[in-house]
Amino acid sequence: PAPVPGAEGAAQLRGQRFLIVADDTPLGRALVTRLTTLGALAARVGPDTAQLAGHTGPVDGVLHLGALAGAEQQLLPAQLTVLQELLLRGPRRLLCPRLPDDTSGIDGFVRTAAREYPDTVVRAVELDPDEPATEQAEALVGELLAPDREPVVLRTCGLRRAPVPYESPLGPPVSSGAGPASSGAAAVAALGLGPESVVVLAGGARGITARFALALAGAARCRVELLGRTPLYDGTGGHHELAHATDLPALRAALAARGGLSTAEIDREAGRVLARREIAATLAEVHDAGGRARYRALDLRDAEAVQQAVKETYATYGRIDGVVHAAGVIEDRLLAEKDPVSFERVYGTKVDGARALLSALRRLPQLPAFTVMFGSVSAVYGNRGQADYAAANDALARLGRLWRAGTGSRTVTVHWGPWAPAGAHGGMVGPELGREYARRGIELIDPEEGVLALLRELAWGEPETDEVVLTASGR
Ligand SMILES: NC(=O)c1ccc[n+]([C@@H]2O[C@H](COP(=O)([O-])OP(=O)(O)OC[C@H]3O[C@@H](n4cnc5c(N)ncnc54)[C@H](OP(=O)(O)O)[C@@H]3O)[C@@H](O)[C@H]2O)c1
Question: Is the CB of 418 inside a 6 Å radius of any atom of ligand 1?
């Protein structure tokens, strides 16, 4: 429960200026009426930068109603530039009301914006869809008066609440006999995975998901179907002359020696070569671990390609036991400097990817026993520079929640803290970022513990739990 502000504080709104960013809706009108009654100066403005430009001058508070407009992704990423501009104006409050089934990821976005704009109370407010506009307006006026800085507030069931993660033990039930330090083998046995099982891992041939694929292969000897962007072959039969260059500096030097490539092209090509090598290594390692792996290059945002891959996999093996959506990219920048195209890339990889995957699963004769979304702590706590990534991971979790509610199929979003970049499958946290986390006192997840934690969550976690945070150091 969060504190409820008393009505007596309403006097402080007198003379303050508010912008209601909305189309002409009942709630927009109710807000203008209510704020005007309280002596404030309230104007409604349409949700685009051209209309905003007509409303210059200082503003004390903004209510952006875009998430209530109904269409999917109405607020994000479509309203990014409007939100950027509103924040730059430095209002004391920016409220973004939404409904309980919103999947735009606005909570993750505001948690990050709140960190980047410490002088503005940035807040997502969940409204009760069954309340009339006048009561929703009253709840929002209450949020303009609330003295706390909660980035996400739920105004439903007549209550004011703020979601807070809580600690929860993770382990096998005592009766399973697996003991607290259970191995992956006990977990996959509890999950019912064996040599005939098939697990699809989107974004699974590299990084931390490759580690999970290896753990599955080792423990269950199952089949893993890996999807990623990078084509495994470059069409030239391989770069034999690069074979001796085993790390990034050596690869850069070898590519530069060829001549004719700019520095940016050298970096891109070196990245591609390393990616191909990592994928090939994963396939070999899965095999060595006792499993079977197949890799398919596709863009997870391409719904048709995803549909085809899932359909073919099911048709080939007659089953898909588990699915992991772990595809992700990061392009960190402060919100004020975020480019919409980059935002869309980061956001779309997670969100469009999840939509494509879930829509392909919906058409299968039988749903997988489990679906996992790889989320991030940035969705739960916000993280400077990651408004896109935090929104994306929050939206991902909401899609997972709706999917579980709609299908009854076990679905959990795991919001990971940072993993230690150890060994061949380092993942997103490179050595430099790893040192930065260490400097800030943030512990990194040991890769072996990370994969085991996920297996344990799937095997013994509460099936109704939609989201878990798995970190090494609390947050
Ligand atoms: N590592 C961490 O500390 C950490 C922490 C929190 C959350 N996570 C999450 O865990 C997941 C894996 O991260 P990671 O560290 O292992 O990163 P990574 O090494 O960069 O791996 C990301 C994978 O996603 C794939 N991918 C990206 N965009 C794609 C697209 N459009 N279609 C298909 N595949 C795509 C990449 O394929 P290619 O590169 O081969 O093209 C790559 O295999 C991500 O979702 C990330 O958000 C990681």
Answer: yes
